[in-house]
Design a protein that fits this description.
alpha+beta, Cytochrome Bc1 Complex, Chain D, domain 2, 2 domains, two-stranded antiparallel sheet, 6 helices, disordered N terminus
Length: 168
């Protein structure tokens, strides 16, 4: 009886750790082996294979298919002056030099060969002249973010923008 009482929480804890530490990686089956006391056969638990475009971490922040953390991305947005050029409600930003990030990414991604939204947002940060939104000019957005931001910061920024962008 004690063995069964210990197995359930330990098995769940193993599943939870395996599930939440694999964010941003391809889905795979996670197997944990747990041996308690002097039992002769080890207890094995398996987590089912899961796939998700967005996952909620144990801290309650959302990770997108970009593998980034939206809460951390908000800080990247603020620290890099994005609010001075872009309107984006989640950042309380009202800049008008660049496209409105509340709505433009989804419609611009469709206009740019129906590009995946996350890939479009990432490309727009790394290579802002790859697609120029209607009504804007080439060369306005800095082209240095691909060098000045780490890949983690870039993924976090993409996750933040995706978290507040209309998906129309």
């Amino acid at each position: 009886m004690l063995f069964a009482a210990l197995l359930l929480p330990a098995g769940f804890a193993g599943w939870a750790v395996g599930h939440y530490t694999s964010l941003g990686k391809s889905s795979e089956t996670v197997v944990h082996t747990l041996t308690i006391g002097s039992t002769s056969a080890p207890a094995t638990t398996s987590a089912a294979t899961t796939t998700s475009a967005g996952t909620t971490t144990s801290a309650g922040t959302t990770s997108s298919s970009s593998g980034g953390n939206a809460a951390a991305g908000k800080s990247v947005f603020a620290a890099n002056g994005c609010a001075s050029c872009h309107t984006f409600k989640p950042a309380n930003a009202s800049g008008t030099i660049g496209p409105n990030l509340d709505t433009a990414p989804a419609s611009d991604a469709k206009a740019d060969k129906n590009m995946d939204l996350a890939a479009f947002v990432k490309e727009s940060i790394e290579d802002p002249n790859a697609y120029i939104a209607k009504g804007y000019s080439k060369g306005i957005m800095p082209t240095t973010f691909d060098k000045s931001l780490s890949s983690k910061q870039l993924n976090d920024l993409v996750a933040f923008i995706l978290s507040g962008t209309a998906k129309s």
